[in-house]
Amino acid sequence: MANIFAKDTFAVVDLETTGTQRENNNHIIQFGCAIIKNMKVVKTYSFMINPHREIPLSVQNLTRIHNEDVEKAPDFSHYAKKIIAILEDTVFVAHNVNFDLPFLNYELMQHGYPALTNKAIDTVELAKIAFPTLPSYKLSDLTSRLAIKHLNPHKADSDAYGTAILLIDIIHRLEKLPQATLNTLGSLSSGLVRDTSWVLNKIADYYRKQKRPLAKEFIQVRNIILQKQTDPSERFAGENNKFPQDNKTKKEMFKGKLNYRKAQVDLINHLHQFIKDPNERAMMVEAPNGTGKTFSYLFSYAYELYSGRKLVIAAPTKVLQDQIIDREIPQMLEITKLDLKAEVVKSSSHYIDLDGFVQSLFKGTPNKPTLVLQMQILVWLTETKTGDLDELQLTNYNAPLFTQISHPGDARVGSRFAEVDFWNLARKRQEEADILVTNHAYLANHYMDTIWGQNPYLVIDEAHRFKENAISSRNDSLQFESLWGVLSHLRNLLYYAEDSVQNQFSEDVELNFLLKKLDPEILELIYQINDLQKALYEQKDLAISQSLLPNGNLQLSFQGKTLFPDDGAFRSQLPAFQQKLEQVRQGTNQILFQLYQEQTSLLANEESLLSEITEQIDRLDYYSEKSYQLADLINNKNNLQEEGFILVATNPEDPLSSNLQWLMLDADKELKQIYNRFDHLLFVSATLTVDHDFSYAIGQLSVEKLMPITYIGIGKSTFNLNKHLEVLAVKDMPKPNSEEYEKAIEEIITSDLLQKNHVLILMTNLDTIRETFSKIINNPKLKDFEILAQGITGSNNRIAKRFSIAKKAIIIGADSFWEGIDFHDCGVDLVIATKLPFESPDQPEVRLRQKRLEDLGVNVFEEDSLPRAIVRLRQGIGRLIRGEKDHGQFVILDSRLWTENYGQEFIKAIPVKTEQITRKELKTKLDNYDQRRH
């Protein structure tokens, strides 16, 4: 590897300070520095510095630097000259350089020294660019992922050394990039923080002079370098594609690769019998965690796929999809020696559109996050074989860039990138695959897709969640305020902005005629939107529930027949609104067409104007489509019975702030249509029964007419669950919702969990999560834990990621944390259920569903609320024990388990004996669990 930076000395600096705001009497308490010469760390420095003030508790918790550590240390004036000498003629480097350099300069200037003017580079931005698929760019996470050893994270000397090794790794990675990628990175990099671009340009310039050829594994299309795609390998028939009937043969096959477990083989044999029986259509299997249910169904169906039929597997989450593709299917193929191919099926928007991405590189000056993201993607394109944006491990795909670079799902014929288009290649692989893995929502919305093939088999994994996911994938909205915003922006582009169409083309007679005709139509459309909003708001007193959200929005729930009476104003006004929306869309289209006639003379800023107008037309199309969906719903009386509606007023006093959402309350017809497309359907989950009875799940999943075979794997777990799981229930907790109860929860979190590493605290209410988080976040007893809270510390996806990366972490969550998120990478030691997981009737979707059941004469508590809560509790327990290597404790803090009659229903559902304990006994039980277990 060439030493491009042989003449450069890097000074990698990390400061620990009393706080982040340097002007607010905050000072440096430790200066750490590592010097790099010839890509090696040659010296380190560490100075403890007296700040002449108290170190805040939160800083002591983070840095482990206490007041006594610095009280006898010299102050900054003692070290200032020495620091200046160390940094002289060096390139200043820091992990977030815009914190360390300004802070250090502020201290120097306060002591009468000039500010440093060194070249300064940032390792956060460089790490994102060099390693685009890492889940986190916190220094401790980077050093852990890249196996960089430093002993004391959040101590300046240790962090400086870790950052120095990180910088060396980054430079080595960048040096390996193809020249065209380096060139493009260099051309984009001027927008990076301070002098960070210097690193990229120096590497690019050096290798440009070397005239390196493009390595064999790459292909260049325009200025983009991609991995070469290999053609699918030839197929062969496999050693033996006949299902092994006797268990002895299976035992031989499993030897050295998989433990032979009788419970698992029993399940395989039952599944095989079902699949071979032409008279059976459906089977429901409850198999506890640890029975190897995924391997079992893969093994059973695999031998039937040589007839040209495909197996479609629908799972609820990306984590489970990845596990099936990356672990379970390869293991099954290794054992069976079958030659089968498997692919993930997901929406085209998950794949990068190379045309859109290249256009984005030439579209003006992006903001900083977009620029860094573009540079990350350029490097990622040299690594990816799929073009699946999920590989970037971002926790938020809402950045404006994604609307431009997400693949629209068309064939891309005639594009420069047609031959290497990732979406088209993915579709080709899916057509050739034998096993397709997708998610519940995608299956529910694309069950008629030809990709599934003729008469395919279907497995619905985690089937207890299928109906809920199918329903939520069909829910939609008509955001009147957003449409109003689109129309205002459109008027600005056409008439009022400095570079509006009217101002730029004032001499064009035909264009001005079209503009003059369109403006009153846009205004009329806005008035019609207002009339629709008023018509909805007038019904507010008829809502079956209403709540004021923390963000100040008013949320009102309605049954369809109440919100849209036959003689209601909304019904009569909607067609006129749709007609006017279409007129405005067509009028804008005519103007756009006229502008394109002038295209030869268009300047760059005018091209950008055309692009923006096109975007507004797309949005008008979108709202038009939503309005027709809504019209279909309210004009079909049968459909109307099966839909709930939620009116959200962003200002409770203003009818013109109203927006409408709708949600499916009964998916019976939709589920049956999906089932008709497939054959030999298997519904599998660890929680399909209530008190060993499938009736609730059969009703929920609308499979009564399929007359499913049922199979329970209870008692057939492949390991002794009692040795892996301990369930404790505290009998003397205060009443839920009381102040005493909330105080007890806080005490338990801050006093009883300290010996644990990964703790999941499950709640049933987001407000309670907020209150609990604010009470515990700065508690010094929890200083070793990363504390994560739903709705506060980022998206659920980000929280799950942080939890699996951190050495010690606590999540406070509700909803999907009971059942929708898995922690395969780190495991969970302890789950605390603060309350029995009954749904909150304040949630509009819950109230609407329950009201519909009440109208049908159903006992809502016994037939809906209680079985749902029991299934959810069992799922909560399932967060702990995912396999035979897992151990943990599950604690219930709801005394209703013992005081209410229905408590026994929950106790019966718990797979091991529940131990009743007192609040006083809890800490001891938690602290000595491992000792008792061994």
Quick structural overview:
With 934 residues, the chain is of the alpha/beta class. The protein is 46% helix and 15% strand.
Could you characterize what this model shows?
Among the domains are: 9-176 and 189-210, Ribonuclease H-like superfamily/Ribonuclease H (Nucleotidyltransferase, domain 5), CATH 3.30.420; 476-656, no CATH class; 721-933, P-loop containing nucleotide triphosphate hydrolases (Rossmann fold). The chain is globular and about 85 Å long. Strand 16 (643-649) and strand 17 form a beta hairpin. The mean pLDDT is 88. It has 934 residues and is α/β, with parallel strands linked by helices. 3'-5' exonuclease. Its EC number is 3.1.-.-.
**Which radius of gyration do the C-alpha atoms yield?**
31 Å
What is the number of beta strands?
26
Coarse shape = globular
Given this structure, which CATH class of one domain is correct?
Alpha Beta
- The DSSP helix count reads 38
Mean pLDDT score: 88
Can you lay out the helices and strands and say which pair or pack?
Elements: E1 9-17, E2 28-37, E3 40-48, H1 57-63, H2 67-70, H3 76-87, E4 91-94, H4 97-110, E5 120-122, H5 123-130, H6 139-145, H7 156-175, H8 179-188, H9 197-210, E6 218-221, E7 224-227, H10 247-254, H11 262-276, E8 282-286, H12 293-302, E9 311-315, H13 318-336, E10 342-344, H14 354-361, H15 368-380, H16 400-405, H17 422-432, E11 435-439, H18 440-446, E12 457-461, H19 466-474, E13 476-478, H20 480-496, H21 501-504, H22 509-537, E14 545-548, E15 554-559, H23 560-563, H24 569-597, H25 604-635, H26 637-641, E16 643-649, E17 658-664, H27 668-676, E18 679-685, H28 695-700, E19 709-712, E20 725-730, H29 739-751, E21 758-762, H30 766-776, E22 786-789, H31 796-805, E23 809-813, H32 816-819, E24 830-833, H33 844-855, H34 860-878, E25 888-892, H35 896-899, H36 903-909, E26 914-917, H37 922-927, H38 929-933
Parallel strand pairs: 1-4, 4-5, 8-18, 8-19, 9-11, 9-12, 10-11, 12-18, 20-25, 20-26, 21-23, 21-24, 22-23, 24-25
Antiparallel strand pairs: 1-2, 2-3, 6-7, 13-17, 14-15, 15-16, 16-17
Helix pairs in contact: 5-7, 5-15, 6-7, 8-9, 8-15, 11-12, 12-13, 18-19, 20-22, 20-25, 22-24, 24-25
